[in-house]
């Protein structure tokens, strides 16, 4: 967070809470989105949080289907597409949030 942003807000006479809401929070959210998205995708791919939520792990289910049907490529291909779909949705949501919280001069959002 550049100190000049906060100093400019104080120079304009904004109270501390208003400075936080209007200047600090949008910039901090914009910076935090990328790391949060990366963490969410990594957690999904490792499937550990899926077990906590109550769903069975996707790879475990795929292994059970393979042991019953012996269709390895079809089963893991579908599992791969499911992982890809969820990760793509998370990435698209992240890009949407980045565009909405874009701060001029803080980097280019594609």
TrEMBL record:
GO terms for biological process: amino acid transport; transmembrane transport. It is found in: Cell membrane. It is a multi-pass membrane protein. The chain crosses the membrane at residues 76-93. PROSITE patterns: ABC_TM1. InterPro entries: ArtM/GltK/GlnP/TcyL/YhdX-like, MetI-like, MetI-like_sf. Belongs to the binding-protein-dependent transport system permease family. This is Putative ABC-type amino acid transport system, permease component. It comes from Bradyrhizobium diazoefficiens SEMIA 5080. The lineage of its organism: Bacteria, Pseudomonadati, Pseudomonadota, Alphaproteobacteria, Hyphomicrobiales.
């Amino acid at each position: 967070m550049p100190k000049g942003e906060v100093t400019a807000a104080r120079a304009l006479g904004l109270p501390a809470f208003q400075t936080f809401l209007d200047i600090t929070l949008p910039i901090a959210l914009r910076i935090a989105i990328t790391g949060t998205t990366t963490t969410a995708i990594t957690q999904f791919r490792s499937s550990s949080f899926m077990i906590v939520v109550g769903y069975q792990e996707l790879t475990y289910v795929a292994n059970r289907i393979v042991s019953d049907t012996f269709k390895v490529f079809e089963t893991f291909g579908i599992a791969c597409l499911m992982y890809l779909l969820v990760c793509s949705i998370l990435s698209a949501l992240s890009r949407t949030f980045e565009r909405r919280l874009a701060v001029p001069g803080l980097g280019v959002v594609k």
